[in-house]
User: Which sequence fits this backbone?
């Protein structure tokens, strides 16, 4: 995804490419939203369509669900491994969510950005807030559900939530939606229209590449 234009001048933070052309700084995209809204499905579809992004894989201590692949959906690790990484400062941010630990590998992001790769990471709303405080120049996208009824249907269809947990997730989703002002963009993920959500992400990336004052993420 490129944005062609005139020479931005010496004060621009755009990098010079190998042939002397200008290319924008790599983006760090933080994708967040309530549990069950379809973040994993969206990222999976983006990979399938070959979107040119580096997809950061989050580490977690939660059990692997049916159909999930270690190293693709998550790095499924033990609590001891997770704590060792925390102690070594290996996570950009980490949190306990619904009784399980989730962490964003710092080195993976650093290496991808250093290569000039646009990078996307999926986190919960709490994690997005933490990253906002560390890297405010990242692009923050909130993936929304069309309605509370639709979100409940999606959570029930996973067949992985005990009734008490389902109620908690729905209540948490209601609270998380109040964090919308933290984000730069909101994208609604309608049932059966995931390609529409992908197109909106594409548009956001294109718009960001056309910024007069590019975002520069420094780790």
Assistant:
């Amino acid at each position: 995804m490129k944005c062609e234009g005139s020479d931005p001048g010496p004060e621009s933070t755009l990098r010079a490419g190998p042939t002397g052309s200008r290319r924008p700084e790599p983006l760090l995209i933080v994708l967040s939203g309530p549990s069950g809204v379809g973040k994993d499905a969206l990222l999976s579809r983006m990979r399938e369509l070959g979107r040119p992004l580096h997809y950061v894989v989050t580490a977690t201590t939660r059990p692997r669900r049916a159909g999930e692949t270690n190293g693709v959906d998550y790095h499924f690790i033990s609590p001891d491994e997770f704590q060792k990484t925390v102690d070594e400062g290996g996570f950009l941010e980490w949190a306990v969510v619904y009784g399980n630990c989730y962490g964003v590998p710092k080195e993976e992001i650093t290496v991808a950005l250093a290569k000039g790769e646009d990078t996307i990471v999926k986190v919960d709303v709490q994690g997005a807030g933490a990253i906002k405080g560390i890297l405010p120049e990242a692009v923050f996208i909130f993936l929304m559900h069309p309605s509370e009824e639709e979100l409940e249907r999606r959570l029930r269809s996973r067949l992985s939530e005990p009734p008490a947990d389902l109620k908690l997730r729905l209540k948490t989703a209601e609270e998380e939606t109040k964090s919308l002002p933290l984000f730069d963009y909101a994208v609604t993920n309608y049932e059966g229209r995931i390609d529409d959500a992908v197109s909106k992400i594409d548009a956001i990336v294109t718009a960001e590449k056309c910024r007069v004052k590019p975002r520069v993420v420094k780790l």
